[in-house]
Amino acid sequence: MATKTADVHIRINPTLKSQAEDYFEENGTTMSQAVEQFLAWTVKHKKTPMRLKHRANILDLSRMSKTEIETMLKDSEKEVKTGKHYTINEVRREMATKYGFEV
Q1: Percentage helix, strand, coil, to 5, in the chain?
Q2: What angle, 0 to 180 degrees and rounded to 10, lies between the N-to-C axes of helices 31-45 and 14-26?
Q3: pTM of whole model > 0.85?
């Protein structure tokens, strides 16, 4: 009996896609097999095998040590005290420009 499959459609840079397909072919696998292995690993371990870059660069405290969090908070406090902070409108403009969406 054949294993059922589902289609997955993604948008990706065409050059990156071509380079990845070449790599997988050279290593005896396919893009579909690589994606399936990535998804299976992620589900099994309940995390990704590498740190992912989020569109909005969302801070994931669960991946940070207590020391890293404390350092980040101290740095943020220094920035506020020295006047290095942003208004909500500045943040919204940055999000729209840098990440392509409105907040």
Answers
A1: 55, 0, 45
A2: 90
A3: no
User: Are 61 and 97 contained in the same domain?
Assistant: yes
pLDDT of residue 51: 74
Q: 83 in the Ramachandran plot: left (φ > 0), alpha (ψ -120 to 50) or beta?
A: left
Q: Note down the domain range covering 87.
A: 54-103
CA distance readout (Å), 94 to 19, 83, 88, 102: 32, 18, 10, 9
Buried b (16+ CB within 10 A) or exposed e, 36-68: eeeeeeeeeeeeeeeeeeeeeeeeeeeeeeeee
pLDDT, tens digit, for every residue of 86-97? Answer: 777 887 787 777
Question: The tokens of 10 are what?
Answer: 């993604």
Tokens 């397909």 found at: 21
